[in-house]
TrEMBL record, chains A, B:
Name used for this protein in its record: Methanogenesis marker protein 2
Domain (PurM-like C-terminal): residue spans on this chain: 194-306
Organism ancestry: Archaea, Methanobacteriati, Methanobacteriota, Methanomada group, Methanococci
Matching CDD domains: PurM-like3
PANTHER family: THIAMINE-MONOPHOSPHATE KINASE (PTHR30270:SF0)
Gene Ontology biological process terms, A to Z: thiamine biosynthetic process
Signal peptide from the UniProt entry: none
InterPro entries for this protein: Methan_mark_2 (IPR017668), PurM-like_C_dom (IPR010918), PurM-like_C_sf (IPR036676), PurM-like_N (IPR016188), PurM-like_N_sf (IPR036921), ThiL-like (IPR006283), UCP036540_AIR (IPR011413)
Single GO MF annotation: thiamine-phosphate kinase activity
Length: 327, 327
């Protein structure tokens, strides 16, 4: 796939363009902690996979939430229920954290759909080992809605943030490429439904180890915006640029590049790390079936370029002039 | 208002009858902590104002979530945004906890409504002093949705639960009666929009003090199910009955009983406590403008009776045969 087409693919992808809304919302939530006699410390709020709130001297609490897309919910409520657990589990893991529990708000127009949704949630809870401990169900809702929030925890000295990439870091894309596109959703790369609970949970736990062993400077869970969009968000908040060879991104042979770049994977992350940590980082991930490859480097300027094995080069984003989420 | 009418009012009230759905949902979320290598301790999940998860030797994390009713959102998006903070703040306070932070999922069909909603949320954050730290906004949603979740914390030895009422406890209803019915929603008793941030936050803080000073055995925030419905849920999960004089419930003179009993108040709680703690409990509340009165007593059997100043008596619930939430 030529690089101009890749640029177009990413920049017109709904999974990326919808992130522009974040800026409008975030400005409403400026919080004056001193004025509020607030007992905790907001270390980081919007802009990362989860918010980080200092809890005591050593630990922070992580908060994240996701609204499961209406079309997904209506087309396959079971899978929506299952994925609601998956996406939240990954939001906490991407911070190097451990999940404490979830709450959810469910609105359903009919009971059959509700039963499938609950079955999917239940299977997700069993697979990922994270409890749902509260929430509400509206069985006669006007609209089908599944909103899930998750709370986790992480040691302050081990948290994996996405705004902390350093110039000169190696960029490592890491995917479990052992999976299949979901029958109903071609942009959904299922890697967990066929795997054991033990392996899936080990994958999440590996991020805790990466954080505690200081094997990465920045990390982000690859999600809706796809590989390059997710990295773009990480670079934007880190105020950095990059050069990335798209041909080096771990990929399933079954999926064409045009689909792979925007796919939402069951277990995938992008890291930046110093060169001397690359081998240990890769090994930690490969031990849990996640294929990790160095694909590029973080740059001090704010230009995000993509290249390929033929040495073509295209500018994907100039963060001096453009933004993805504006955080 | 005669007691037979009160019984009918409560038992047909949508705020109470919709709680029956909880039972169906809860059964899907049984969690086997040992099998899941779960690092925390689920002390209590569904059935209380917030879930309690043991975090370390001394502390527990509290999780709660609320979906703001669609009609409220559409009629007055500003007020819905404001109330989404209020209800979550009270869920944590009712556990004797301190709030850490909120996330929310917003779906809006039009931008004007979105602006009002965000303004209400922002004013709620300022009033209650609790930050919104994450979430998502869908600006082109099919449906108007506002789902908010909150995380808090409490010392394990100070948590106020609702399933811990003891036979012989005095039942204390506590309301800030200094307020007004909302112009748009007659079942909404606004006590906070006109008050200082300092007083409103002191009201929430008083519950922390009540927990830490062991001034109550059980507590529940009075919310959707109204005064008697809320007490009913507390008795049900405590596996107790009661005799309650409805004429003793603190009430605004401006509001008829038929409206007051089902009203959703800005700051109100029902407690059960031993007789020797009644005065200290009342004083703690009255110091923050909350009027507290002993209205009845918890009984060992599972019959929940209401009485009045004329000594009439009616059975409201027989929990051997009926349930409100089935938890």
């Amino acid at each position: 796939m030529d690089l101009k087409s890749v640029v177009n693919l990413v920049k017109t992808f709904d999974g990326v363009t919808r992130k522009k809304e974040i800026k409008n919302v975030v400005n409403n939530f400026k919080f004056n902690a001193e004025e509020c006699d607030y007992d905790f410390e907001i270390i980081s709020d919007f802009g990362d996979d989860a918010a980080i709130i200092g809890y005591d001297d050593e630990n922070a609490i992580l908060l994240a939430a996701d609204g499961i897309w209406g079309k997904l919910l209506e087309k396959n409520p079971y899978w929506a229920g299952y994925c609601s657990v998956l996406v939240n589990a990954n939001d906490i893991a991407a911070m190097g954290g451990k999940s404490i529990g979830m709450t959810n708000i469910i609105g359903i127009k009919n009971l059959e759909m509700g039963k499938d949704l609950l079955k999917g949630l239940k299977d997700g809870v069993k697979k990922f080992g994270i409890p749902v401990v509260g929430g509400h169900t509206h069985p006669d809702a006007q609209c089908n809605v599944l909103d899930v929030s998750i709370t986790g925890t992480v040691r302050k000295d081990s948290v994996l943030r996405s705004d902390s990439a350093k110039a000169g870091d190696k960029i490592v894309f890491a995917y479990d490429i052992d999976g299949k596109a979901h029958d109903d959703f071609s942009l959904n790369w299922d890697t967990t439904s066929m795997k054991s609970k033990r392996l899936v949970r080990s994958q999440l736990k590996s991020l805790v180890d990466i954080g505690e062993n200081k094997l990465a400077n920045a990390c982000k869970d690859i999600s809706n915006p796809g590989a390059l969009g997710t990295l773009g968000m990480l670079l934007e908040v880190s105020r950095k640029g990059a050069v990335v060879n798209v041909d080096k991104i771990p990929k399933s042979d079954d999926i064409p590049m045009s689909q792979w770049l925007n796919i939402y994977p069951g277990s995938a992350f992008v890291f930046t790390t110093s060169e001397n940590n690359v081998n240990a980082l890769k090994k930690t991930l490969e031990d849990v079936n996640i294929t990790a490859e160095v694909c590029g480097e973080v740059k001090a300027d704010k230009k995000y370029y993509i290249t390929n094995d033929k040495n073509d080069k295209e500018l994907l984003y100039d963060f001096e002039k453009e933004y993805i989420c504006g955080c």
